[in-house]
Amino acid sequence: MKKIVLLLAIKQDQMRERFKQLLLDSLPRMNSKGLLVSVEVINLNDVTSEQSGFAQLIYEFVGKHRTDFTVLLADWLTDPIRRRPTSAASACIASCQPDKIATIGIMSNPGRTPDIDRTIAPNCDAMVLEIAIERVIKRLEYVSAPEKKTGIDLSLLDVRILKNTQTEFDKYFSLRQQIYTIMGYLDGRVESARSQFEITEADTHAIHCGAFYRNDVKDVLAGTARIVLNTEADDGLRKMFLAMISRDVVLQSLLKNPYPLGLPIFQSHKGMNRIMQEILKKDLICGELSRVIVPNEFRGLGISRKLIDFAVQKAIAKGVRRVFLECLEIHEALYQHHGFRRIPGISGPVVDVGRTMIAMEMEQDRIEKIRASSRIQMPAPRISKQSLRLNI
Are 105 and 118 in contact, with CB atoms under 8 Å apart? Predict the structure, then answer.
């Protein structure tokens, strides 16, 4: 059984007492849902205003209490004007394991803030607070090491490119939205969008892959992955996606808003300019691996590895010469196993998901081996004719 501690680090006395009472009132309801096995509500009255003081105090608390998960609820995590974490919050997050601590920032105008899991208003009610806590706990559970699964026959798993049908893409975009909501990657508009899909313009020029598990008489989506290409959009995909979100103005605006620099990774990191220049000079087809997602019931079975290998092979078969990705630092080892190496000095908030991630690129030797083993003939490059600007 997991021990979960709700840790209050609130400077204002009145606000601290209000949230303490809200939590005490909410605990029976949250425990009845099986969310919180054990809870301690702690007031930190002796925190200082110094960056190191906050970080050290939180680090010592987490280490001393040896909790499975800690949910930090504080009014000093966010800079309301610049819409970013405070230096104290960044130091605190960096000092603790990301799969052990979650953050809920209290701010007058709540909204997605990079690297802060959730934000709520000082006058929020108990229901809003409970939903925020429930979601950050689900995020911690999701990024934790999965339990060993039994009763799943992997011979019934089929990893393939999605069929161009609304039925398959409905499952695909729904699963992405579900997991990205848990991870806190979506802004409020997308999280509550009518269609309940996670979809962007990059999906119109991407290879979409799925892992399907044959359960009795139907295929269950057991994982997703995509490789975005710096090629022209597929008109067929665009039309189908627009039909799927015909009544969703939020997602329509995202689908009609292309990335000026071709790949999302180029939007995220200004330090990629040199690499972009090389790609444009050589007129190379490139790809970006993303949306590698496996739902909880299928985690721990190696499905993400199968998806990564399959997606990369299909991209190389389409003429991709360089493959990039952005990931949380805790996932670096996973992608290293597949031949990706960290690009030195490139990290920062990622476009669309609001989390600090590192940039990685697949080694050219690995790409050549995949191409040679598959006897792939490289087609002539056809990169997007869209006018590109360097991200300066």
Answer: yes
**Domain span holding position 294:** 154-373
Is residue 391 in a domain? no
| Residue 161, SS3 per DSSP | strand
In a domain, 386, yes or no: no
Q: Which of 344, 347, 331, 341 is nearest to 363 (CA)?
A: 341
Q: Nearest Cα to 332, choosing from 367, 363, 360?
A: 360
Q: Residue 289: what are its φ and ψ, rounded to 5°?
A: -75, 130
Domain identity same for 115 and 243: no
Tokens of 241: 């996606």
**Residue listed under structure tokens 């689900």:** 138
Rounded-to-integer distance, Cα 187 and Cα 89, Å: 20
Choose among 272, 308, 315: nearest CA to 290: 308
pTM for the predicted model, two decimal places:
0.89
Q: Domain check: are 128 and 162 in the same one? A: no
CA-based angle 285:363:298, to the nearest 5? Answer: 90
Residues 34 and 13: their CA atoms lie apart, in Å, by 30
Considering the domain boundaries, does residue 75 fall inside one? yes
Q: How far is CA 239 from the centre of its chain?
A: 26
| Residue 218: inside a domain | yes
Rg, the chain, Cα only: 22
pLDDT confidence band for 189 (50 / 70 / 90): very high
The one-letter code for the residue type at 298 is: F
Contact present, 265 and 325 (Cβ < 8 Å):
yes
pLDDT at position 345 is 93
Q: Contact at 8 Å (CB) between 3 and 39?
A: no
Question: Amino acid letter at 333?
Answer: A
What CA–CA distances, in Å, run from 362 to 234, 271, 323, 358? 25, 17, 6, 13
- Rounded Cα distance between 118 and 110, Å, is 8
β-pairing, 4-9 vs 69-74, is parallel
For residue 47, is pLDDT > 50?
yes
Question: Is it the case that residue 49 has pLDDT exceeding 70?
Answer: no
DSSP-derived 3-state class of residue 73: strand
Q: How many residues does the chain have?
A: 392
Residues 68 and 115 in one domain: yes
Beta-carbon contacts of 38 under 8 Å, excluding residues fewer than 6 positions away, are 1, 3, 4, 5
What domain count does the chain have?
2
Let me know: does 210 contact 162? Beta carbons within 8 Å.
yes
